[in-house]
Amino acid sequence: MRTLKHILIVLIVITVFSCKNDTSKEKETISETVTEIRNDIERVEPPNWWIDFKNQKLQLLVKHPNIGNATPIISYAGVTLEKVNKANSPNYLFLDLDISEAAKAGKFNIKFTLEDDSELIQTYELKSRKNPAEAYVGFDSSDAIYLITPDRFANANPENDEVGGLLEQGIDRTNGYARHGGDIQGITEHLDYIEDMGFTTVWPCPVLVNDMPSGSYHGYAMTDFYKVDPRFGTLADYKTLADELRNRDMKLIMDQVANHCGLEHWWMKDLPFKDWVNYQDYYEENKTNWNRETTKMSNHRRTTNQDPYASKKDYLEMAHGWFVPSMPDLNQRNPFMANYIIQNSIWWVEMLGLGGIRQDTYPYSDKDFMSNWAGAIMTEYPNFSIVGEEWSYNPLLIAYWQEGHVNKDGYDSNLKSSMDFAMQKNIVDALNEAESWDNGLVKMYQGLANDFAYTSPKDIMAFPDNHDMSRIFTQLKGDVVNTKMALSYLLMMPRIPQIYYGTEILMDDFDNPGDHGLIRTDFPGGWQGDSVNAFTGEGLTDSQKDMQIFLKKILNYRKTSEAIHNGKTMHYAPLSGTYFLSRTKGDETVVHILNKNDEPIEIDLNNYTEMGLKGKTLKNVISGETMIWGDNLELKSKGVTILTTKL
Ligand code: CA
Predict the structure, then answer these.
(1) Distance 182 CA to ligand 1 centre (A)
(2) Confidence check: pLDDT of 7 > 60
(3) How confident is the model at residue 36 (pLDDT cuts 50, 70, 90)?
(4) If residue 146 lies in a helix (H) or strand (E), which one and from where to where?
(5) 594 closest CA partner among 574, 608, 611, 610
(6) Annotated active-site positions, please?
(7) Residues within 5 A (CB) of ion ligand 1
(8) What is the pTM of this model?
(9) Residue 572, Cβ neighbours under 10 Å: how many?
(10) Residues 6 or more apart from 180 whose CB is under 8 A from it?
(11) Which helix (DSSP H) or strand (DSSP E) does residue 490 occupy?
C-alpha cells in the first residue's frame, strides 16, 4: 500500500512538473489539499477567511462541547497557529492564526485532539480575494441612497414567508409589528425601479437573522452575525443583490450593529467569557425576571462621550447599559469580542463586495473600540465608506464623529461619515414656521452655515427622515409643496443624501405619528394583489405621481452633476420669503430657489450677481424650460425652482 501511495505521489509530482515550472509550490498544494470535508465542530467563526489581507492575523472562535481542553493542530503552508486561548466556558477555544503572504487559497483541516485522545476535524477554507482592496469604493456625495425596510418593501418569494423552527411564526400584514413577508429578492427584482428613480445606492435595514419571539421584522436584534434571516432569503440572495447592484455601477450598504445583539443570540445560552456582554453577572442573576424595570438600561445620555465634566457613573451607564431589555449590550473591551466584531464586518465586506457600512447606535458602543473597528476596515479597504448613527441635533457632535476633526480629547473616529440629524430638524422647522427674523428659512440658512465646523461636509449623510422617525410628509403636516422644498434642498446641499422608501409617493404616518410599525408601511405593489402599484404607477394619486416624477428628475440630474457632487457652495441670506443656494463646478452652476410666498413675487436678480449668471441661459431642471438670467425673475407661486447652466 505504502509503496503504491509513493508511486502515486511521484506520478502526480511528475505530472505537475511537466505542466508547470513552479514545482515546489504545486507540491505543497497537492500535499495539503483536503480530500475529505469534515465539519465535526459545532461552530467555527468566521466560517471562512481570505488570503492577502494587510492584517495577517485571524482569530477563530471555536465552539463545541468541552473543546476547551482540546489540543488543536493546523498544518498548512503559510498558516501558523500562534496561540490557543481558553475561555471561561469549557465549550470554547479562540485560535490565533497568522496567515502569511505565502499562504495560498485552499482548504485545510484543523485537528482537535481531546483529552481522551479522540479527534475532531474541522475543514477550514481560505479563499482568494476576487477584487483588489481599492475596488471596494464606498458611497460618497455623488451617490443618492435609497433606504429600505426589507420586510416592508416587496415580497418576491412567498415561499420564505414562514420558516419552521423560528420563534416568531407567521405573517400578518395588518399588524405593524409583525412580519409582512418582504425579502431580499424583493429588492433585487425592483432594482430597475430604484435605478430609474435616480438612486445609486441601496441601504437595506439589517437582513441577518433575528430569531426573536416578537418584533423580529426590523432586523436590529441579531441572533447570528453570520446568518441571513431565512425569511429574508439566503446568503446567495444577498450576494445576488450585491452583484446585481455592482453590475449597474450601484452600491450596497450593509446595516451593521456592533453595540448589541438579540437576547436570543445563540451565545446567550453559553457565554464564552464572564465579560462577553455588559452587566453580565447582573443579567445571569436576574434573567428569570428580565424586563424594563430590572434591566440595567442605558441612560441614553450620549453627550457623556464628549462632556469634559461628565461623571464616570453617567458615562458607564450610557455606554454599558443595555439599549433595551431584549438587546444585550456587547462588551467591546473584551479583546476577543473586539476581534469578533471587526472580523465579522470585514467578512461581510469581502463576501458581498459592499459599497459601505452603516453602523447602528454609534455612541452607545465603546468609542475607542469603534475607532479601532473603523480603522481596521479602512486599512483593508482604503476607498470604503462607513457612516455612524448618532441621533443628535447638535452640530458639535456631528463634527466630533467625523474622521480628521480636531477634538479636544484627541479622539479620531476613522469614520468618513456622520449623520446630519441637525439639518433634518432645521429643514422641517424652516418649512413649518412662518417667516420672521429668527424663524423660517433662516433655520436652513444658519444650519448650513454650521458647515464651517465640519471636516468634510460633503461626506456627511443628510436625510428628510428615516426608518425611526415620522415620515417627512407627516412632519411637514401633509404639505406637498413644503415636502418638495425639503427634498430638493437635501439633494442640492453638499451632503450624501439618503431617502427612505416610499417618500417618493408621499407615504405618511398621520394615523399615529411616529409609530414605528406605521412608518414602515408596506410599499404598494410589493405584494401580489396590491390594488396600488407604485412600481408601475397603477392606482397612484396625481400628487403621488407628481412627487415621484419630481424626485426622479432631480435625482437623475444629480447623478451626473459635478457641481452638486463636489462643487463650490454659496447661499444668500433669506429675503422676503425666498432663499437662494448655488453649487458651481467648472461651467456648471445649479441654482436652487425656495419661495414661501403664496402670491407671485418679483426677484431683483441684481442681488445675486456673485453667482456670475447674468446674461446666461439656464434650464429649469423640473420643467425643462429655458430662460435668460436678466435683471428680474418672477416666482409665480410657492415652491422650488432649480435652474442649471447645463442645457
Ligand atoms: Ca417573502
Answers:
(1) 5
(2) no
(3) confident
(4) strand 145-148
(5) 574
(6) 360, 389
(7) 155, 157, 160-161, 181, 183
(8) 0.94
(9) 16
(10) 151, 152, 155, 171, 172, 173, 217, 522, 527
(11) helix 480-492
